[in-house]
Amino acid sequence: MSTEPSSTTPTATDTVPAPRFGVWLIGARGSVATTAVAGCAAVAAGLHPPTGMVTETTPFTDSGLPSLSSLVFGGHDTVDCPLPKRAEHLAAGGVLPHGLPSAVHTELTAADREIRPGGPLPGRDDDRTTDALIDTFAADLTDFVRRENLAGAVVVNVASTEPAPPDGHLPPSSLYAAAALRAGCPYVNFTPSTGLHHPALSEQAATAPVPHAGRDGKTGQTLLRSVLGPMFLQRALDVRAWSGTNLLGGGDGAALADPAAAAAKNAGKERVLADTLGAAPQGEVHIDDVPALGDWKTAWDHIAFDGFLGARMVLQTTWQGCDSVLAAPLVLDLARLLLRAHSVGLTGPRPELGFYFKDPDQGASSSLGEQYAALVDFAGRLRGRS
């Protein structure tokens, strides 16, 4: 009897292909999405360190997160500028390093091939029902998973902020969120848009057989507020007023020039202070669209507070940064965390990921320090399920 292995029996030289996972981006040709795709390719290839990626730090070692090299990108968008060209624009504006678009051109092109038309668009989708649109978006997702032979996919909304819906109709962000659930994909809302927070989706969101997280990524001004607010509270200093101003350009600036969209954005900023301090202090946040700034943003805060014996004092802060560069590593973090959570059978809202959001899921603290501790604990739980 022959002792040689049959053609169907694995040998010592055979290798089992590593599983690959999809990251489906809503707003896939925008600045944040382009930076995430280019940045993932650059870090995976060793061209740049993973600066800003919390999941690449020691507490997440051996948590079973998908590797960056295993991620495959696609998405929905309503614009047709190819990702390689969009990356060139970002490099020209100083967002991406010079030469990076050329270095990762293959990965950008591959992701661009997997981008499908979003919507609804006036004229094109006028006759399509809500359910038909959700079906189409869900089919795009399932086709992506099948075509790329993926072990799973996560949907991440990084599109421009939309105004709060004025009636019972599902806005685009909620159509995409419903499609993610219908396709059996984890979902992340990195924007202030409605997404799964629409009343018509509340029951589905609560009982979804997939994990989902957030609303509105915490990248700059609110990140600082989630640190300073607890500081004032813990030092028993009385905050009398907290005012802020944002100057920004790019697609986000243009979208937030709409007062309704700006109001949706500011709600999360104000909620952090109200939740931390017990009540919202006097003052508002103003957002000004300055197209010349491109993807760069300047945020000022003026904090008036009382000290011992009623002494009146002021703290002023200035935050200058690039929103796309701040957001992209967090998008990659969240994609990996939700993919891992899904693979180990976790479902429903994940308040453990409140570290990343202005408006986290119910049960999350508003303090960044407490949120980080919950995130590290979550990493340990994922590790323990290996």
TrEMBL record:
Source species, domain of life: Bacteria
Residue ranges annotated for the Myo-inositol-1-phosphate synthase GAPDH-like domain, each copy included: 220-324
GO molecular function per UniProt: inositol-3-phosphate synthase activity
GO BP, sorted A to Z: inositol biosynthetic process; phospholipid biosynthetic process
Family assignment from sequence similarity: Belongs to the myo-inositol 1-phosphate synthase family.
Name this protein carries in UniProt: Inositol-3-phosphate synthase
Organism of provenance: Streptomyces xanthii
